[in-house]
Design goal:
This is JmjC domain-containing protein. The protein is mainly beta and 234 residues long. Helices cover 6% and strands 26% of the residues. The chain has a domain at 1-89 and 182-220 and 228-232. The chain is built from three helices and twelve strands; from the N terminus they run H-E-H-E-E-E-E-H-E-E-E-E-E-E-E.
Length: 234
């Protein structure tokens, strides 16, 4: 099924969107890719980012496509995340970063002392996958005997349908579960300006075409941020 493990990595020989679209509906792959330039002209930046200087700190945009039924690993992003759903349904489970000290206390350790199933591949390159995530959890069948720490963690749920957007603040842990039908969503990763730039807040007419993804400069990356590329996940 479409349960993310981060173990398979990117698929070789699948470099065009058209090729992916021919195969994804009958295989266990989904697309995570920078949005093609032609699509960027059709997607507008949400108005809340027009004001304050945020447009100077845009990191990356991503297009996600899946045939439905996908389940992500539990993870967090190091940037602010605005995620909008164009087709299908998705359920987000979210955990506040105040739990970080406990959740990430024992990376790559056995249970006990690890109580959450946390893996950090950056600390042990022999482990499968990439980055830091809760790779020992089965998101379909949480083992609360082996990882009892999750019994104590407060979490929130957000259900999205086509036309909905969600803001996931930097550092919030999340896990995403797609509904049974095709899902298409786009996200923008960005960082907050150190100082709110009020001078950039110019009232816009309701008839204004707004700011499209293609109008923006992307690629801002603070020191230490990892580059984000194309991934066709198994």
């Amino acid at each position: 099924g479409l349960k993310e493990t981060r173990a398979a990595g990117a698929l070789e020989g699948l470099s065009r969107l058209g090729t992916f679209l021919r195969y994804y509906n009958r295989s266990d792959i989904h697309l995570v890719s920078p949005m093609p330039r032609s699509m960027q002209r059709e997607v507008h930046v949400l108005p809340l980012l027009h004001c304050g200087g945020f447009l100077n700190f845009l990191g990356a945009h991503k297009l996600w496509i899946g045939r439905g039924g996908s389940r992500s690993v539990v993870h967090r992003d190091d940037a602010e995340n605005l995620n909008c759903l164009f087709a299908g349904r998705k359920r987000f489970a979210l955990v506040h970063p105040r739990w970080r000290e406990e959740l990430e206390a024992h990376p790559n350790a056995d249970s006990p002392p690890d109580r959450f199933g946390f893996v950090d591949v950056r600390l042990n390159a022999s482990l499968p996958g990439y980055g830091a995530f809760f790779g020992r959890l089965d998101v379909d069948a949480m083992d609360l005997v082996r990882y009892p720490g999750w019994l104590e963690v407060a979490w929130h749920r957000a259900d999205l349908e086509a036309g909905d957007c969600i803001y996931i603040p930097r550092g919030w842990y999340h896990q995403v579960r797609a509904g049974p039908s095709r899902t298409v969503n786009a996200l923008a990763w960005y960082w907050r300006p150190q100082r709110f730039e009020a001078a950039s807040c110019v009232p816009r007419s309701m008839a204004s075409p707004g700011v499209r993804f293609s109008d923006c400069s992307w690629g801002f990356s603070p020191p230490g941020a990892a580059p984000q590329g194309v991934r066709y996940h198994r």
